[in-house]
Design goal:
about 90 residues; mainly alpha
């Protein structure tokens, strides 16, 4: 559970501050959300791999990577729903 909060804390500022300031004005909502939700799991995979399983072969961490991907897909889906409802942006 610690790793989930820690990984989110690492990517949250970039996803929410940088993408909104740089991407939203230039490219619009969908590009901003898509770029942010693509960046987050990739960066979280990288951080997790080298922080929590540096000595394991890559494939031994695949379960954790699947969880990271599913959590980010859930976040992406929630973002799309909130966007459609007019709650975001």
């Amino acid at each position: 559970m610690f790793s989930a909060f820690w990984l989110t804390a690492c990517t949250y500022p970039i996803v929410n501050v940088v993408s909104r300031e740089l991407l939203l004005p230039a490219f619009g909502e969908m590009t901003c959300i898509s770029a942010a939700e693509t960046f987050a799991p990739l960066f979280e995979f990288f951080i997790f791999r080298f922080t929590f399983c540096p000595d394991k072969p890559f494939l031994q961490c695949k379960g954790e990577f699947v969880v990271i991907l599913l959590a980010n897909l859930a976040s992406f889906g929630t973002g799309l729903i909130l966007l459609a409802l007019g709650v975001l942006f």
